[in-house]
UniProtKB/TrEMBL annotation:
SUPFAM superfamilies: alpha/beta knot. S-adenosyl-L-methionine binds at residues 76, 108, 127-132. It catalyses: pseudouridine(1915) in 23S rRNA + S-adenosyl-L-methionine = N(3)-methylpseudouridine(1915) in 23S rRNA + S-adenosyl-L-homocysteine + H(+). GO terms for molecular function: rRNA (pseudouridine-N3-)-methyltransferase activity. CDD domains: RlmH-like (cd18081). Belongs to the RNA methyltransferase RlmH family. This is Ribosomal RNA large subunit methyltransferase H. It comes from Heyndrickxia coagulans. InterPro entries: Alpha/beta_knot_MTases (IPR029028), RlmH-like (IPR003742), tRNA_m1G_MTases_N (IPR029026).
Amino acid sequence: MNISIVTVGKLKEKYLKQGIQEYLKRLSAYAKVEIIEVADEKASEMLSAAEMELVKQKEGERILAKISPDTYVITLAIDGKMKSSEELADSLDRLATYGKSKIAFVIGGSLGLSQAVLQRGNESLSFSKMTFPHQLMRLILVEQIYRAFRIIRGEPYHK
């Protein structure tokens, strides 16, 4: 299985980079996982609704350019469907069983995802009703993907 995590912006925090690298190393036994960063759109703090949409649109175009037509896309969004770790594992296992070997998880920038990206998604996943920094979501996501593969294989993992 080939998994891409398409995300907006560069990761700067050393502690997040270290955690992500650790999980990517662990995941290498189960799947090929790559993180694809696209540039974030520079924007001031005080944006109008129209300006916010323009920022999301530009970032969305960069995201969509990194996703091939045969990729199953899972967007991360606050209003997506919440799943337990076991349900995520079951979803990934089902996708592999039915020949979906290319999966992309998409994490938007600080303003979220454009409508075009959300529409391209095959499903939308929410980790919480709370808002998390998009950089931290990378670490949470790679840990959950790792946990899912451990569950799929019936291997022990702390609860």
